[in-house]
Amino acid sequence: MSSFVFSRRASRLTLRVSIGVLAFALTAVLAGCSKSPAPPSATATAGASMTAAAATAAPKPIEKIRFMAGFMPQANLPFVAAYVAQEKGFFAEERLEVDIRHSSGQDEHLKLLLNKDVDFTTGTASQALRRSDEGLPTTAIALFGQRGDQGYVVRADSGIKTPADFKGRTVGFKAGVVPAELEGMLKSVGLTRNDIKLVSVGFDPREFIEKKVEVYPVFLSNEPDTIRKAGVAVTVLDPHDFNVPTLGIAYLAHQDTVKQRADVTERFLRATLRATKWIEANPDAAIEITLKYAKGAEPTHQRFLLGVDLDNAKNANGIGRADPKAWQDLADLLTGFKILPRTIDAKQAYDLSIVDRLYDTKQIK
Questions:
Q1: Percentages of the chain per state (helix, strand, coil), in multiples of 5
Q2: Torsion-angle region of residue 208: left (phi > 0), alpha (psi -120 to 50) or beta?
Q3: Residue 355's closest CA among 257, 283, 212, 250?
Q4: Residue 60 carries which DSSP code?
Q5: Distance between CA 212 and CA 217 in Å, rounded?
Q6: Are 358 and 269 in contact (CB under 8 A)?
Q7: How far apart are CA 199 and CA 173, in angstroms?
Q8: What is the pLDDT of residue 38?
């Protein structure tokens, strides 16, 4: 009897405990449904915030690079873009420490680029095409000159108005090479080099001023101004105006730099193309900056030079970009007059993908 009573009491106790446990569990569930999840600890929150901030704010490492302009300090647009990017802090914002140098001549800048002793330099589109044809690992990464920088001057009273008037005249050529641009100008009016008197000239315009030659080859951005300042009125003939395909100066890089240091190449281009925007809006201030590098240069001459380069660089899609057809037309011209020994695909001479991306993503402002 006592065992039976004890068993019944134990059963009642067990039932009460079970009901209590169930009630507690139900209360906990309901409380959980009515409240937001407990926030993470302050320590965890702070740690996550610091990690996110570090990930977004970590600066790029400072990269040291060398830029060598292809001529003495002066107001060629791609030179000035580097000067302005340095002086206005655009290079610094890209975490670039840039050593700006200038070529001493004899294609020093191109030789140093091949040796990777400089990272970026300047050269013409024609030079880029010729080096590509020779199998050299250089590539154009931004094109400033949408038309060539070489042309001809004649005395204003010479009676020479078009290439048709070159017939029977003395026509100069520099560096021992008759340029394809001259051949193209002659062809456009049905002439050949046999119809003119070719004369090898140097780089001193006094040969023209002293009438040793009637048609003188010039760099359009500066030599016509120099000759006019010497008191000689001239007419300028630009091959581009006679339907001769021409392109001008570009930034060049070693192919390894573009492939292996694409981020550095992009930072360099972003800084210099931003600088060109600033130069367009502030050309006179840009000349003041230029004179820090071109010490002793005559300001009005430098302003003339920059003005010509800015006009030649105009591109509705953005300075630095280029039309692939213009590149191929130039390559075909060079091939047609044996400057290039064979027909080439001009695309092998340039890679403007970074410039295009910078504009397409609206990073050049």
A1: 50, 15, 35
A2: alpha
A3: 250
A4: P
A5: 13
A6: yes
A7: 6
A8: 45
Over residues 279-310, the pLDDT tens digits come to: 999 999 999 999 999 999 999 999 999 999 99
**Residue pLDDT, tens place only, 250-281:** 999 999 999 999 999 999 999 999 999 999 99
Note the pLDDT tens digit of each residue in 158-200: 999 999 999 999 999 997 889 999 999 999 999 999 999 999 9
Q: Is 218 helix (H, G, I), strand (E, B) or coil?
A: strand
Side chain identity at residue 56, one-letter code? T
β-partners of residue 172 are 199
Q: 63-147+247-360 and 150-242 share one CATH topology?
A: yes
User: What are the structural domain ranges in the chain?
Assistant: 63-147+247-360, 150-242
pLDDT score of 315? 96
- Give the neighbor-by-neighbor strand order of the sheet with 216-219: 216-219, 150-155, 234-237
With contact defined as beta carbons under 8 Å apart, do 247 and 140 qualify? no
CATH superfamily of 150-242: Periplasmic binding protein-like II (3.40.190.10)
Phi/psi region, residue 322 (left: phi>0; alpha: psi -120 to 50; beta: rest), is beta
pTM: predicted TM-score of the whole model, two decimal places:
0.82
CA distance 11 to 96: 83
Q: How far apart are CA 98 and CA 270, in angstroms?
A: 14
| Side chain identity at residue 286, one-letter code | A
What backbone phi and psi angles, to 5 degrees, belong to 121? -145, -170
* Residue 97 bridge partners (DSSP): 64
Q: Quick check: 57 pLDDT over 90?
A: no
Superfamily (CATH H level) for 63-147+247-360: Periplasmic binding protein-like II (3.40.190.10)
Q: What is the pLDDT of residue 92?
A: 98
